[in-house]
Write a structure and sequence with these properties.
heterodimer, A: mainly beta, four-stranded antiparallel β-sheet, 3 helices, B: mainly beta, 22-stranded antiparallel barrel
């Protein structure tokens, strides 16, 4: 009986005592050779965000790159977006209340812009200055990039999302009030408020210098793509979904900026910036995937689609040619939300 | 409507049987003949944990004592933070919690927070594993935990005062007064706890793993319970209970974040009236209760303020009739109404549930006992049927051995939030249906001067249309029936007691193996099929040892919790942890006065661990308890 109990305890110790392995850091050459960065958001309040690197040429993937190159530290809670300025990447970590600054050649930390509330996107205005939108604040932060500090804030009316810069104007999606706000970036002041459909979230500038905004809609209002004339500062075209079951997610433009891609729950659609109605069938169908992120490589026009699966396991990124043919697919981190291409 | 009629007829039948019985002449009977037959001693599907085990100084709430003493898992977000119960691989809303028979699970959220239940208020906990929970209500797919207050009619005047001082500003004071005679009993309980929970930990989420202190973790809880019992006759009594509990907690940030004000208040008012009547061959219980739960949540960062109220009235009629030694009939009727109001969201929802349980028990011989039972639930114009069958077998007449096997099904109806929350509620949701088979075995024996007891249970269950909240295309989370989940496992419990001269050694241990895996692919790339559900350890092991000599007692406790996966594809996990506690106590006695002094060291080996990812847990800490008991 005693022997049996002893064996039982031994077996228990062996099967149950899983330990985590210390990850090996990635070599600088490897990091430099990879040209694609995948932002894996991770779950809200789980602090399991991560970054993946992909080399388009060798098709090699490395996951948890930040952890590997920073002594196994977590990246933070929900990595929402990033921009590249020179050799530095500014990674907006939404629920860690900061923007991490990483050297893109090493993925080592080069500081952080802290004391933000719930940052979503960062828009470089000049070499010195950038705007940061926020989920919970009634303001946009104006940050100083060299000192990595908040310079001042510009008042808004609630949740702000993606932003674009066109000349001296910044166009900012304001989700709560269903508006696109236009700011004078020289004076950091509000120029105009433009009403849109429900929940404007993503925004792009096309070849004609027109601004496109995607409104995700809700269970009782239609989703829509809307075009804003950047000079008149008003909506000049609206293409609404057929019914409230259809939502419109992220939008992207082709390298020539004459083609629009956008996500719906059925898949990815494409249309020309001259079209006036939305396509009814997806160009690339979801086919059982949970398409959550969309990006286009501005150098070669290749399209990247992120499958978040059940939001609680490692996602998959699909790489398509500009003609819609599948080139590659690879496993990344939890909730891949966006893909960036190093310049 | 037809089913409703059937249910009414069945219930009427039960009540009419009761009416006939009330007319019969009353003769003294022993309560035990109704409470538990001899053969029931052989079942291990229900476990009783008494107050001594529940209220040991090392447990701050009922969740911690259950985790140690029973085969279940409590998911805790840290000291004083939310703690939810999981039995047999199910989630918190598939595990039911009862107080003297009254359901405490929130009709809106489904779960209960065990951190709001200090063991001080409870005299006894019963853990009903699997199908055994059907008797008290539906929805306990994994099982149920019943928290009970007991009554004893005897002459007494007792006062006990307990004062705890612990690390991190923990102070708990409680007072219990028991007064009564053979006719009346009054029991008053007062409770007050405050804590800062500002312990130091190594923040491994930051460069260089600096030592940091937990911020924004202040806690203030107070409560009162008053029970009055009146013995009308030798065989009947009334009980009335009032329980108020008020909790005010700050919620600490993740290790990766910065502190900001996040705060939650929970207030519960619970009132219960009971009537118990024993007859010659039967027993009747009638209960009526009112519960109001109020939750206020504030988040400074997101400028969120939400407040919600949930009121419920529950009525219970329970009748058991043993018309000869071989046959016994039990019926239980539950009528529950719920009203949920979100004051901040300006929405309200109502629900009425009518449910009945009937059981026929047959003992063909001293060795066998057979039970056939069924529960029916009527809610939202739908009818659900939950049948079951159990066979008990005791091969030896002394009942040293016991074997039991059960088969049956249970239903968990979606919560009000699952159906109606805006946004995210889904009115097309189906109920969760579980089909279960279980087998249990127990043995007691004595060798030399040592008593041994071993209990084991194995189960297999399929839960269909498992409800999960997942992000939707509109950005918010939505409730969906995802797929089927298979749960299977093994539960072992053992205890022994030995006397060596003046020393008494007690050893108790339990081991739980839980496998709960998704049985289907929900998406094209889904790798979660066949994988363990997240935050559910496959292996758990608990050990308690106590050495007593005269007025001294030294006890040691070990808790091992195996790795918990944090992703559904089981690629990431939190490693196991192994905690040890030690308590030394001495009892001073002087006539009718007793003073208990104890000193405990918790997390003795200063383990740095996380129960939930990036939520710090306390290292080694200490607790002193002074308990004064006066009798007259």
């Amino acid at each position: 009986m005693r022997k049996l109990a002893l064996y039982f305890c031994l077996v228990l110790m062996v099967v149950a005592c899983k330990e985590q392995d210390e990850p090996e850091p990635l070599a600088v050459e490897e990091v430099q050779a990879a040209n694609v960065i995948v932002l894996n958001e991770g779950n809200f309040q789980w602090a399991n965000a991560s970054l993946s690197l992909y080399n388009e040429e060798s098709r090699k993937v490395d996951n948890k790159v930040f952890q590997k190159n920073n002594n196994n530290l977590p990246l933070g809670d929900v990595v929402q977006s990033m921009v590249q300025i020179g050799d530095l990447g500014y990674f907006v970590i939404n629920n860690s209340n900061k923007i991490r600054v990483l050297n893109l050649n090493t993925f080592r930390s080069e500081g952080a812009i802290e004391n933000l509330n719930s940052p979503r996107y960062i828009l470089p205005i000049s070499a010195q200055k950038a705007y940061v939108s926020d989920l919970h604040e009634d303001k946009i932060y104006v940050v100083d990039l060299s000192s990595q500090s908040i310079l001042k804030t510009i008042p808004t009316q609630g949740w702000t999302e993606e932003m674009v810069l066109l000349g001296d104007k910044a166009f900012v999606c304001q989700m709560d009030s269903n508006e696109v706000l236009v700011f004078d970036t020289k004076k950091d002041s509000l120029l105009q408020r433009i009403s849109t459909y429900t929940s404007p979230q993503y925004i792009e500038v096309d070849v004609n210098q027109d601004v496109w905004v995607s409104c995700s809609g809700s269970s009782n209002s239609l989703a829509a793509l809307q075009k804003i004339d950047a000079n008149q500062l008003q909506v000049v075209r609206t293409m609404a979904a057929q019914n409230t079951n259809e939502s419109i997610g992220e939008i992207e433009l082709s390298p020539q900026k004459n083609k629009l891609y956008y996500l719906t729950e059925k898949g990815m659609n494409q249309l020309s910036v001259t079209d006036s109605i939305l396509p009814t069938q997806p160009w690339i169908a979801s086919a059982g995937r949970n398409l959550y992120g969309l990006s286009v490589n501005p150098q070669n026009g290749e399209i990247y689609l992120c499958d978040a699966i059940d939001f609680q396991q490692e996602g998959v990124v699909y790489r398509y040619g500009e003609n819609g043919s599948l080139i590659d697919q690879f496993q990344v981190g939890i909730i891949p939300g966006d893909v960036y291409f190093k310049q | 409507m037809k089913q409703f009629g059937l249910l009414l007829i069945a219930s009427f039948f039960a009540l009419s049987v009761w009416a006939q019985q009330t007319l019969s002449d009353s003769v003294k009977i022993k309560e035990v003949s109704i409470e538990s037959g001899r053969a029931e001693a052989a079942t291990v599907q229900s476990q009783t944990i008494d107050s001594a085990d529940l209220q040991a100084p090392v447990y701050k709430d009922i969740g911690e004592s259950l985790q140690q003493n029973a085969n279940l898992f409590v998911k805790s977000y840290g000291m004083g933070s939310t703690a939810t119960l999981s039995l047999r691989g199910t989630n918190a809303s598939q595990t039911q919690l009862y107080w003297n028979g009254v359901n405490l699970n929130s009709a809106a959220y489904g779960s209960t927070d065990l951190a709001l239940f200090p063991a001080f208020f409870i005299d006894q906990a019963k853990v009903d594993y699997g199908l055994n929970s059907l008797k008290y209500g539906s929805g306990g797919i994994g099982g149920a935990v019943r928290l009970n207050n007991k009554v004893e009619f005897k002459k007494r005047q007792q006062l006990s005062i307990t004062q705890d001082f612990g690390s991190f500003g923990q102070q708990t004071s409680s007072l219990r007064v028991r007064l009564g005679n053979g006719k009346w009993q009054s029991e008053s309980k007062l409770f007050y706890r405050k804590a800062e929970h500002d312990f130091e930990y190594l923040n491994t989420a930051k460069e260089g793993s600096p030592k940091e202190r937990v911020e924004n973790a202040h806690l203030l809880q107070k409560g009162i319970m008053q029970s009055i019992h009146y013995r009308k006759t030798e065989r009947s009594w009334f009980s009335g209970h009032f329980w108020y509990y008020d909790s005010d907690r700050n919620l600490p940030p993740l290790m990766t974040g910065t502190a900001f004000k996040e705060h939650q208040e929970d207030r519960s008012y619970r009132a219960l009236l009971e009537y118990h009547q024993y007859y010659e061959q039967s027993k009747l219980e009638l209960k009526s209760s009112f519960i109001q739960d109020e939750i206020v949540y504030e988040n400074e960062r997101s400028s969120t303020y939400s407040s919600s109220y949930l009121q419920s009235y529950q009525g219970i009629a329970d009748y058991q009739w043993q018309w000869n030694p071989k046959w016994k009939w039990s019926s239980r009727l539950n009528l529950n109404t719920y009203q949920f109001e979100s004051r901040s969201g300006n929405s309200s929802e109502n629900r009425v549930e009518v449910s009945s349980f009937h059981q026929l028990q047959f003992k063909p011989s001293a060795k066998w006992k057979l039970e056939v039972y069924s529960r029916q639930l009527l809610v939202d114009r739908q009818n659900f049927w939950m049948p079951g069958f159990t066979a008990h077998f005791s091969p030896d007449s002394a009942q040293r051995w016991g074997i039991a096997a059960s088969i049956g099904q249970n239903v968990k109806y979606p919560t009000l939030n699952d159906l109606y929350l805006q946004p995210g509620g889904n009115q097309d949701l189906k109920e969760e249906l579980s089909q279960t088979a279980e087998l249990s075995l127990s043995k007691r024996w004595q060798m030399k001067r040592t008593n041994y007891k071993i209990e084991a249970a194995a189960y297999y269950s399929e839960i269909k249309d498992y409800i999960l909240w997942q992000p939707s295309q509109f950005g918010y989370w939505q409730a969906r029936n995802i797929s089927s989940v298979l749960t299977q496992g093994l539960e072992l419990r053992g205890s022994t007691e030995q006397q060596f001269g003046k020393y008494k050694l007690q050893l108790k241990g339990n081991y739980t193996y839980t496998s709960a895996v998704k049985n289907e692919k929900s998406y094209a790339n889904d790798k979660s099929k066949g994988k363990q559900l997240i935050y559910l350890p496959e292996h758990q092991f608990n050990l308690q040892a106590a050495l007593t000599k005269g007025s001294y007692r030294l006890s040691y406790r070990q808790q091992f919790v195996g790795a918990r996966y944090t992703t559904t594809d089981n690629q990431d996990f939190l490693p196991y942890y192994n905690l040890s506690d030690c308590t030394l106590s001495r009892l001073f006695e002087l006539k009718d006065q007793k003073l208990l002094l104890s000193f405990s060291a918790l997390n003795l080996f200063d383990q740095q661990y996380q129960s939930i990812q990036w939520r710090p847990m306390a290292g080694r800490n200490y607790l002193v308890r002074l308990k004064l008991m006066l009798n007259s």
